[in-house]
User: Fold this.
Amino acid sequence: MTRSFRKLCVYCASSRLADEAYRVAARELGRLLAGAGIEIVYGGGAVGSMGALADGALGAGGRVTGVLPRFMDELEWGHTGLSKLRLVQSMHERKSAMLAEADGVVALPGGCGTFEELLEAITWKRLGLFCNPIVLLNTRGFYDTLVGALEHCVNERFMDERHRRMWSVVPEPGGVLDALRSAPEWSPEARRWALPGREA
Assistant:
């Protein structure tokens, strides 16, 4: 069965200081997702990769929803040109709201906040609470070390061999949609073998 994607959750960063290549990739991804008719749900920021992603999609006629904690809105961190800006009370509510209706996740390079969001999505998938594709956009090899750490978890048997199928890694924005569409099927039954060494 061919997967269809109506709405994607995209994790990305707000740093203005990171290499321009990250913002270029984010802008291109926004453009590609808009061209495919896919709505983007992201953290609502106006600068860094966040702003580039939103601007790329909006410039191509796409729909972009931002989810922003109220304290960030008070600091005027939000993008003012979005299709929709949803204000929430906390960072926890933001993460849940972004993931709740998503048909998949794409993680762009970022800092500790991006890592937290991505690893929570992977954890939810491991427990069968989220069963949609997770794709890491590996611009400049950014995610090599994190993927290496996850592989190490599997090798040391803190995670099951089957958990390697929870994520895909692509080097360029142009590979994201194919990776989403070709991701292995995942089921809530995964929770039956969430503990390494326990068979379903």
